[in-house]
Amino acid sequence: MAKSREDIEADVRDVLVDALGVDEDDVVPTATLKGDLGAESIDYLDIVFRLEKKFSTTEKPFKIAQGELFPENLMTDPTLVENGKVTAKGLALLKEKVPHVALGDFEGDPQITKLPTLFTVKSLCDFVERKLKN
Amino acid sequence: MRWMWIDKVIAFEPEKRLVAVKNVSLAEEHLHQHFAAEGGLPAAPVMPNSLILEGMAQTAGILVGSVHGFREKVVLAKVASATFERDVTPGETIRYDATIERMDDMGASTIGIVERWSFVDNAWAPVGRIELMFSHLDQNRAGTEFPEENFVFGENFRTLLEGAGLKKFVV
């Protein structure tokens, strides 16, 4: 049976509590991984590994390709980032590759250093929900 | 001499599992401070858990490094969890049993079981469980440049590993 949104949110909360050592009550949909929950670079890989484990079943493995959830390496291409800002081409690619992230104000001032601040608990849940449907 | 906290590799399953042992001896000076006699209490030499963690990090780090023939600079990036339920004292042997849980180009997560051999009980007993994350430094530069030379797995270290018994497992 497919997981409900509530189930997904509870599982994502478990993953973040284990990966980041945060309090369960702090894992709210609007919390950002970096700013609010204190995620550092290696934590993103930890979160990816834990999500894979949490949502994999014997019938259907849940495998997250590099850059599929967090576009870390996508942004090293000079045509996508120029003078510390994501180019129009980069923004289009972000929308295509990471639709689970709401760009919002970032589009108006797309400084690459702000990119990690866009990832919220909700964006992780959206990512998992969308991926489980496919 | 490199700061080594394992004495011998005793089992190796490439890309999966590495097991190493360390014999704890009262000749190790740090045990005289941990804990020294104080305030009327007698000395209580106990292997520090922080160094047990280092031993596991070396065991698991060697395992992760071996996957790509020690070409990657493998660094310990995170202690995901570490729990200890029992002390290790001089005259006992620590066994570090590390397995790779997940690995990709960026790094790896490992699960480690720590046990001790007691010559009094003649049995292995659980000491703790340590989950670690390793990063492949060159894949995670974030704008930082590191030396070309592999300072994690240098020539001296490789020699030391061979002496510790890893070579006979490597085909």
Can you offer a commentary on this structure?
- The complex is a heterodimer of chains A (134) and B (171).
- Chain A is mainly alpha-helical and 134 residues long.
- Chain A folds into 2 domains: 1-66 and 119-134, ACP-like (Non-ribosomal Peptide Synthetase Peptidyl Carrier Protein, Chain A); 71-115, no CATH class.
- Chain A has helices at residues 5-20, 41-55, 88-97, 121-133; strands at 81-82, 85-86.
- In chain A, strands 1-2 form a two-stranded antiparallel sheet.
- In chain A, a hairpin with a 2-residue loop joins strand 1 (81-82) and strand 2 (85-86).
- The two termini of chain A are 14 Å apart.
- Chain B has one domain: Thiol Ester Dehydrase, Chain A.
- Chain B is 19% helix and 36% strand.
- Chain B has 3 helices and 6 strands, in the order ββααββββα.
- Chain B has helices at residues 30-33, 49-67, 155-163; strands spanning 8-13, 17-23, 74-84, 93-103, 107-118, 123-136.
- Chain B has a 6-stranded antiparallel β-sheet, covered by helices on one side.
- The mean pLDDT of chain B is 88.
- Classes of the chains: A mainly alpha (134), B alpha+beta (171).
Summary keywords:
heterodimer; A: mainly alpha; Non-ribosomal Peptide Synthetase Peptidyl Carrier Protein, Chain A; two-stranded antiparallel sheet; 2 strands; globular; B: 171 residues; alpha+beta; Thiol Ester Dehydrase, Chain A
